[in-house]
Amino acid sequence: MAQARFTEAIDLYRDFLSRIKxxxxxxxxxxxxYGVYTFRIEATVHTEIAAAHLxxxxxxxxxxxxxxxxxxxxxxxxAFYYLAVLEALKPNVAGAExxxxxxxxxxxPKVTFQEFLELVHEEFK
Length: 125
Description:
By secondary structure, the chain is mostly helical. It has helices spanning 2-22, 41-56, 59-72, 77-89, 93-105, 113-124.
């Protein structure tokens, strides 16, 4: 059941990206509901798609989506956070810590790296 929900979410996000590509003025609506970490709606959407792929275990596609998100906003803390999650799931602890540090440097809420690893273990394993 959860897999189907993540797949549905990915489809909806991709549809949204198509709509804003065809109607760029829609991006300005984000001004009224801006995120804490970025004003680039594309960065947010690609990161959400990546999160769904992480939950489904598709690490390669998650990584691709996160790199696209960072092309839109190279300081997007949430994308760095999910890159840290991706690396932790591989497991590549050094890579996870590197991306986690970038997330913190760009404003992600302060937790310890050990707390982060525990959260990843709880949520993704």
